[in-house]
Amino acid sequence: MNRELVYRSKDKEIEVFEDEFGKITIKEIPHEAAVMVALENNSLILISQFRPAVDDIIIQLPGGGMNVNEDPENAAKREFLEETGIVCGEAVFLGSIQPSACLSNTVTHVYFTKEILEYRSQMLEKKEASIQAFHIPVERAFRNIEQGIWKDSELAHGLLLARLKGLI
Predict the structure, then answer these.
(1) Domains of the chain
(2) What tens digit of pLDDT does each residue of 39-68 get?
């Protein structure tokens, strides 16, 4: 497949390519992310966040990009704390997913915790100012996905992995 580099960010962390059919793909460096499926009292801890690409508020698992040389589990715990203000203990690796392989090289590592240790304040970056953390019963979350109310691939896949492994 022929593809042409059409954009490279100043820090060389993002490259955008266009193929002969006009299809755009994105290569990110680093290209890994980590998310947390968190359970407390049979409720999931999720976030809502405005996403400009779809011009809407999306319900997601707390998580985000990993720092260079950062361990995926530590990244999941760090992002969970930053976005929810909650410190968690032990986390179990559920698997890795490619949430948008047709567009991006991003790989997301999914973790699970039910060990909620402490509530603190969120530590959001400026670009994350719209993030709100909330609890929702597990079965209601599955109904929202089933009914097409929630469409985030990392959320759906993460909950599926947790259910298949008997954790929720």
Answers:
(1) 1-29 (no CATH), 31-164 (3.90.79.10)
(2) 999 999 999 999 988 999 999 999 999 998
